[in-house]
Write a structure and sequence with these properties.
By secondary structure, this protein is of the alpha+beta class. It is globular and about 35 Å long.
Length: about 130
């Protein structure tokens, strides 16, 4: 099982935001919180669907893409883990990882290749 996760000690250091809400949804109360974008190590922008803690059942069913566990430090979103969806985790396993890393949201970038996962992990967890 390939797992990209930062150790707990990393959460203490200062964080440089690499993500942002979508400008195109700034005026949409209904959709603004459902999408977020992150930049990969390559500089490429990855738009993700946002799922709240408690929606691990759906997230665990995703077959292709990148799954990013996101914590919140003083209102600033901080990625704490990145998984390849193809690794298929059970809802309970995802919930356990989420509790351990204080995940408040799961950001999912739906895509067919593992390169997106590597690009995101290289940027978000360094």
């Amino acid at each position: 099982m390939q797992r990209f996760a930062s150790p707990r000690s990393r959460s203490i250091r200062a964080f440089t935001p690499r993500g942002q809400e979508l400008d195109s949804l700034a005026d949409s109360e209904a959709l603004r919180g459902r999408f977020f974008s992150w930049r990969g190590a390559s500089g490429r922008r990855f738009v993700c669907s946002v799922f709240q803690r408690g929606e691990e059942g759906f997230v665990s069913d995703v077959e292709r893409g990148a799954i990013i566990g996101v914590a919140s430090d003083g209102g600033v979103l901080r990625p704490v883990c990145v998984f390849a969806a193809a690794e298929r985790r059970s809802r309970d396993a995802l919930r356990k990882v989420g509790r351990e890393l204080a995940v408040v949201e799961w950001h999912v970038h739906f895509c067919p290749d593992i390169e997106a996962v590597r690009d995101l992990a290289g940027s978000l967890l360094n």
